[in-house]
């Protein structure tokens, strides 16, 4: 069986590729820059861009199943190509923003919901993955922690049910390879909520360094990332963190229900990435 992984060099896609290889599958990876992909040699790497259909002529030839990264522009044309090519199953990386709305989340929710609807309308068997905040988002703190042992951020009391990217991938691989997941919309979280202050402390414990959380105002955060992030993304982040102060993220049991084992805690992710912070 040949499985195409789009977004194969992303934080979830890399895990999907690795776990499919461990299960003995033939993996084809789509990326815009094959020369920078750094994927295992067993992977067939194909150059292409989901937003440019003219680059995708041979991408789906002989593909049985598809892991789809949520690119908006071009999604409808690509899914139609998948249908014509005989793809039997699609697992879509979506977002929990669809189910948990907050200030300025509408654009993100509608973006993902639109792609879900495209996939559902294709007639191909589908599974949607709706993860929350990724563990790997903590890497945005790495430079400050290395240099000063500090995290400067707003809403330190925001309680997040962070999800490990490898767990998202493991659920994706289950849905790609095994029956019983068609039509599912899986909300994915980690096993517990942990505040942003506690996240900083957890990193410090792992690297053996005192890491303090320095609360800054939303306006100070806006100023620190303006130009690096779109305005709507900045406001979405602030809206989410503010909500999570008063309404902690829900902890969903989906990872354990699907995989038959507990979801990985944030501390495990930190241990795996300690060198990024030390």
TrEMBL record:
This is Hydroxylase. PANTHER family: PRESTALK A DIFFERENTIATION PROTEIN A, PTHR43162. It comes from the Bacteria. InterPro entries: Ergot_Alk_Oxidoreductase, NAD(P)-bd_dom, NAD(P)-bd_dom_sf. Residues 7-178 form the NAD(P)-binding domain. Gene3D superfamilies: NAD(P)-binding Rossmann-like Domain. Pfam families: NAD_binding_10.
């Amino acid at each position: 069986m040949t499985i195409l992984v789009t977004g194969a060099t992303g934080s979830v896609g890399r895990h999907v590729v690795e776990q499919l290889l461990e299960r003995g599958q033939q993996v084809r990876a789509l990326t815009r820059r094959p020369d920078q992909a750094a994927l295992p040699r067993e992977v067939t790497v194909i150059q292409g861009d989901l937003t440019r259909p003219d680059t995708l002529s041979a991408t789906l030839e002989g593909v049985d199943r598809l892991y789809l990264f949520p690119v908006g522009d071009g999604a409808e044309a690509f899914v139609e190509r998948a249908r014509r090519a005989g793809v039997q199953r699609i697992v879509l990386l979506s977002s929990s923003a669809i189910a948990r709305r907050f200030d300025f989340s509408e654009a993100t929710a509608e973006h993902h919901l639109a792609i879900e609807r495209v996939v559902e309308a294709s007639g191909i068997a589908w599974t949607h993955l709706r993860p929350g905040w990724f563990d790997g988002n903590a890497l945005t703190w790495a430079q400050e922690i290395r240099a000063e042992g500090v995290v400067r951020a707003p809403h330190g009391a925001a309680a997040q049910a962070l999800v490990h990217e490898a767990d998202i991938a493991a659920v994706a691989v289950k849905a790609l390879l095994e029956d019983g997941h068609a039509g599912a919309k899986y909300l994915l979280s980690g096993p517990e909520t942990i505040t942003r202050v506690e996240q900083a402390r957890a990193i410090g414990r792992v690297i053996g360094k005192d890491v303090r959380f320095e609360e800054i105002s939303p306006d100070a955060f806006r100023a620190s990332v303006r130009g690096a992030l779109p305005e709507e993304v900045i406001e979405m982040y602030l809206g989410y963190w503010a909500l999570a102060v008063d309404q902690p993220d829900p902890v969903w049991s989906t990872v354990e229900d699907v995989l038959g084992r507990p979801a990985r805690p944030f501390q495990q992710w930190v241990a795996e990435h300690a060198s990024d912070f030390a």
